[in-house]
Specification:
- The chain contains 13 helices and nine strands.
- The chain is of the alpha+beta class.
- The chain has two domains: 224 residues, Serine Threonine Protein Phosphatase 5, Tetratricopeptide repeat (Alpha Horseshoe), CATH 1.25.40; 119 residues, Sandwich (Immunoglobulin-like), CATH 2.60.40.
């Protein structure tokens, strides 16, 4: 294993390196569908517009992402606004497609064959809109994407405690969200504290308060508030996810392993980041079997290849277990998905040694 261990330190398996890029937690709705569309129209760029519906349930806040995927690969993603509306700009022919999962993105107008739109929300499965036969110059409205609750998921994206919140507490939470959108954080903080004072088990308000503390750089208070939200509603998955991410930023591998396991148990399909965090944490702890299981779970779940790191981690863990041929397969897949950067360079240096060991193992009687 000598040459393998020489390469491993070059791979960035620090937990904090795997936070998903995006806006600060409390600011995720400051750019909504209308703003995205207006900017696109100013550039003379055509757009696809529509709405996401969760049926008779209340529309969740800043959680629904609409993905544009072609032949199983996610090309772009936009966030729906507070009313479920979304607007996906199409770049002119020859334009660059965005590959990031965030507030806005663009796709190339002339390439819709084999493409689909779907919504992503933990605990729900999405209808799919087929764009293959769509004329890019026609009506931009694609209609409504309907999300259906997954009855097999124990965890919940919306807290059950919200139903018991008194009117004044609900009103304070809405005022806080409006203030957050306007970046009036002092006013938002006062309203959120009011909501929690009126209804101490208001898990949704506690979660928003934790996100605001994160935005203000006070991770200690954020952690405390997320723990209070989980105590109020143990099946509310959103504060659990944020606690896991904070633990990752702080490099607490054992805590990340525990929290990610809880999150996966509550919602096995809604949080690929939990599988990734678990794989990294257990890799750092030397728990090869647990890391392999989580990385394999991520690879299976991540059909859109938003987290190619899963292939790399799986390749490394399999190498540690001397499963050379399987390791080489996943490292090659990782390099197909990620061609640049330090991790790709390290994987390229590692792969020849893995392939040589795989070939030697095949020759053994």
């Amino acid at each position: 294993m000598r040459s393998l261990l020489v390469v491993l330190p070059a791979l960035s398996f620090a937990l904090g390196a795997f936070q998903v890029a995006g806006p600060a937690p409390a600011e995720s709705r400051t750019i909504d569908a209308r703003t995205t569309r207006n900017r696109a129209e100013l550039r003379g760029t055509p757009t696809l517009t529509g709405k996401v519906s969760v049926g008779e349930e209340s529309q969740p806040d800043d959680s629904i992402v609409v993905e544009f995927a072609c032949r199983g690969s996610v090309r772009s993603a936009v966030a729906a606004d507070a009313k479920g509306r979304f607007s996906l700009p199409l770049s002119p022919p020859g334009g660059q497609a965005s590959t990031s999962r965030g507030i806005s993105g663009t796709i190339t107008a002339e390439h819709l064959d084999g493409c689909q739109l779907r919504a992503v929300l933990s605990g729900y499965r999405s209808d799919v809109i087929d764009l293959s036969k769509r004329e890019t110059g026609g009506n931009p409205d694609v209609g409504t994407i309907v999300l259906h609750r997954d009855t097999n998921v124990e965890g919940a994206l919306l807290s059950a405690t919200t139903a018991g919140a008194p009117k004044d507490a609900r009103k304070a939470l809405e005022k806080a969200r409006d203030s957050i959108r306007d970046k009036k954080y002092d006013a938002a903080l006062a309203e959120l504290k009011k909501a929690v004072r009126l209804y101490p088990k208001y898990a949704a308000a506690l979660f928003e308060l934790g996100r605001l503390y994160e935005t203000l750089g006070n991770n200690t208070e954020a952690r405390k508030t997320y723990e209070e939200a989980i105590a109020a509603d143990p099946k509310f998955v959103r504060p659990l996810e944020r606690l896991m991410m904070l633990a990752g930023l702080e490099g607490k591998s054992e805590e990340v392993a525990t929290l990610s396991s809880r999150l996966i148990a509550l919602d096995p399909n809604g949080f690929p980041i939990a599988y990734l965090s678990s794989a990294i944490a257990n890799l750092n702890l030397g728990n090869w079997d647990a890391s392999e299981k989580s990385a394999a779970g991520l690879v299976k779940l991540d059909t859109g290849h938003r987290f190619p790191k899963g292939e790399q981690i799986l390749g490394v863990v399999l190498a540690q277990k001397q499963k050379w041929a399987e390791s080489a397969v996943h490292l090659r897949l990782f390099l197909e998905l990620v061609s640049d950067g330090a991790d790709a360079d390290a994987a390229r240096r590692l792969l020849p040694d893995i392939e040589q060991r795989a070939q030697a193992a095949r020759k053994q009687p």
